[in-house]
Amino acid sequence: MxxxxxxxxxxxxxxxxxxxxxxxxxxxxxxxxxxAGEDKNQIEVTxxxxxxxxxxxxxxxxxxxxxxxxVAPVSEDNKSGDDNKSGDDQSESEKEVAxxxxxxxxxxPYGYGPGHMYVIRDQNPASCSIM
Length: 131
What we know:
- The protein is an alpha+beta fold.
- It has a domain at 2-73: Alpha-Beta Plaits (2-Layer Sandwich).
- It contains three helices and four strands.
């Protein structure tokens, strides 16, 4: 599934924008990368199976502060009308997601055990030594 990722960067000059583009294109799964936004301070990456967290971390390490703006699937509007109808049926069936039932285990804390009782006996029962 193709996805479109938009990351906001502080691209102050040509050098930082070139560096950001090189890093973005070097990530596996990237099909294209382009600068976007009013001030060309956003990088728009499209591809299949992009690790968005790894891409953002690489940009933070090498370029500077990077903010993940959006991750969205790419819509394909180039199909004809007949193909869209069959594609819609397929996409509706793909939208149905089975909910995985996970058993919930309750954790009951262990209570404190009974206190230990020790009997201490005096070794010399006759406390008077004069007698």
